[in-house]
Structure formats: structure tokens, C-alpha cells
């Protein structure tokens, strides 16, 4: 057998599972079709860590609560920022008061203790910038925010340092069952393994084929990474760091159709305002709806306007074929980052009991250190520059990202190969100018460090080249 375990898909869940099982004496590989791991994790480097209160589905709520509880230990271990900011679901009308009362009762029935219904005087004390009329709010103190890409990368890097092989730019075409184990066919290889953990959509594979299973059972598809199953669209407005729209909690409003309007404090100190709705609406409509929480949205303060499908298909860990060696993680959900540590830990338990493997004695649970120049004091900056003068050259002025950080992001385990990869790892080009001043420098450093031509450097995926061709034959670019 080529491997003990093959993990299909290098998203945050694939990386987290790889990390958990790399603690054991197993030969493991992750197969990812993209240039980078966790490519889809977020558009903005802040994800909400839910605590299950908002979820109608009981299993999802359980996984969210479990993941939420594990987040302190994980973020401390990987040294990544995680803030338990707490959340308030606001009610402005009697109908909305009934909705939050229903959510509160459901949470109490599920045994959740950290929720409270608050009167307006407490709400305005907690959020002095809130200047819309509120009748009641449901407070959950354990909700938090985290950098999802840092989390996914940490899982991936530590797994890599503990011997997991990452096969990037390799697409799984099929999984076939052998008398013992499996054959995984990719566009580059045919690999055999004892066990498969599949986190990719599985409609076209010979085994674990969701479409076939569902047709045979004459039941509708319950979940699966099927884009048609998503429930709507999320529209995000990233607001500049502005005192008037600064809130310390995540603020939500939920209407009777289950549509949400919310604001989130980002890890960088900005505010994200967003709506998750059933039908597509214009930017003006988004601003109008968001204004129910942030009474003022000044266009001058809008840094980014983005939209993304809103998924609410419950996550399922399907280990019904564990005896044959197959685990499938199905579903696509807006709280997937929150559930990741819980899912990885459950999957790891199944793998360990199935493979009867032992803990490695030399497992290294530390992520290699990296410096964030903008977070260092002057004394620390001086010391880092003395170690490597590249930390003294600012490439992105808005975010204060140095050449040293970009080079480290490229040279680290599972290093960046694309502009998006550098952006996500360092924060370069995420500032007010959105890369107008530094994008060309990032492309040039990437080309130098990866021994490629500048015209070969891509944004994030195949054929997304930043520069199409040379327009003049200079000796150098
Ligand atoms: C804008 C946005 C905001 C979000 N906000 C939050 C939030 O606030 N809180 C929260 O908890 N969650 C949030 N999420 C959810 C979460 O980030 C994503 O759902 C999560 O990243 C999905 O992780 P995954 O590993 O399961 O799936 P994916 O990232 O989809 O992983 C699957 C991987 O498999 C790869 N793959 C697919 N097919 C193949 C193949 N045939 N061969 C090889 N590889 C393949 C894909 O390239 C992908 O990398 C948000 C997501 C987005 C996009």
C-alpha cells in the first residue's frame, strides 16, 4: 500500500483531520486540487466562532458548541488570535422579540447555560455606539472571532512538519474499492491506501457516490457539497476602522424567514456588516438592511463589497463504511470553521480505533514561528531586522508588511505560491489601497523566490495570471 490514510481535499477540515491523525504512526497524504490549502476558507480573515445558539439543527448546534469549547486551547497552541467577543441577537419589533425568545427557549432545552435575554438599558451599556431602537436582545457570551486562514494553515503546517505529504494541484478523479483497501485515481497518479477520508464532493466517484445512493434510496439529497442546496447568498460590506461603526460584540438580527443581518468586529479592528438572504439584492438594499443595526453606513468607509453563497446544509460525518475503511465528511455550512476542531477530533477517534495505531513519540505540536512586523514593538522590530534586513523593507505600507514576512510566507512549509496565498498569510494588499501600491512588488518577490517569470505568477488558480505578457523586450522586469 502507498499510504495508510489518504485525505481527499485540503480545505480546513482536511487539514484539521491531517493534523489530528498525524499524532499517530500512520503514513498519510492529503490530495488537494488547488495550488494552496484552504483556498475557500474566507474572503475576509475573520470568521465567527458560533456557539450553537442560532442553529435550528440540533447536531449542528452540538458540533458548534464542541468546536467553540476547543477553540481556546487550539488558538493558544498555534499562537493565533482568537477573541471571545460575545454576540447579541437584537429585537426591534414584537415579532423579533418572539423570535429571540424562541431561540432562547430552544437553547435552554438543549442545556445551553451561557445565554441571557437582556433589556435595552444593559444592551446600550454594552454597546454605546448602537443608536437604533432595541426592545430586547439575546446575549451569548461565548461567541468569538478567529482568523480562519491562520487556523487552517496552522493545522496544515504542523501536519506537514509531522510527516503528512501534501499533494497540491492534484485532482481526485475516482475512488475504487480493492479487496483490501482502496485505489484513489487522480489526474497525476494511482494511489493505494488502507483508508480514505473524503472531504470533497463525491458525486462522480465509483464508491461513496452520493447521487447513486440517493437515487437508489429514492430520497432527496440530504446534504453534500452541492451548490444547488445552498439556501441563499451572503453580502458582505467591510467597513473601515471608524469609531461610529465600531462594536465590541457580534450583533445579529434574524427575521421570521430566517434571514440574518449582522456586524462582526474583525481581527484587524474593522467592522464587517453583512446580510444572509434568500434572493439577490443590490448594494443599496444591503446598505439599507445593514442600517437597521449600524444606523450610518458612509460609502466613504466601505473598503470592500463582496458576495458569496450562503450554505446551511448540516455537516454529517458518515462512517457507516468504516469497516471497509471509508469515512465521508459531507455538508456545507456557514459555521464550518467553528465545527472543524470537533469534526477532526471525532474522525480521528474513528481512524484510531479502526487502524489500531499508536501515538508517535516524536510528535511536534508547535507551529514554526513567524513575525508580524505590525504587531511588534520597536525593540522587537530592531532585533528582527538585525536577524534579517528584509524585515526592514516595507512592501505593503497600509498593512505594514515587510519583505521578510513575504519571503517567509513563501519559504515556510506549504508556502504561498500565488498572490492570494501571500495575501492570506501576511495581510499584504488587504489595506485601504487594496494592493494598488504593493501588488507588483508581491508578484516580483514571488517570481524571484519561486524561480519563475513574473508572467507565470497567478492570482490564485490555474490561468489566473496577473501579467499576461511582456509589452516591450527590456532586459529585465
Ligand atoms: C465568505 C465566507 C465566510 C465564512 N464565514 C464563516 C464564519 O464566520 N464562521 C464559520 O464557522 N465558518 C465560516 N465560513 C465557512 C467555512 O470557512 C467554509 O465553509 C470552510 O472553509 C469549508 O471547509 P472545508 O474544508 O469543509 O471545505 P472546502 O474548503 O470546500 O474543502 C474541500 C477541499 O477539497 C478540494 N477539492 C474539491 N474537489 C476535489 C477533488 N476532486 N480533488 C482534490 N481536491 C478537491 C477543494 O479545492 C477544497 O480545498 C465562511 C465561508 C466563507 C466562504
TrEMBL record:
Residues 4-202 form the FAD dependent oxidoreductase domain. It comes from the Bacteria. Residues 394-448 form the BFD-like [2Fe-2S]-binding domain. PANTHER family: GLYCEROL 3-PHOSPHATE OXIDASE (PTHR42720:SF1), GLYCEROL-3-PHOSPHATE DEHYDROGENASE (PTHR42720). This is FAD-dependent oxidoreductase. It comes from Clostridium estertheticum.
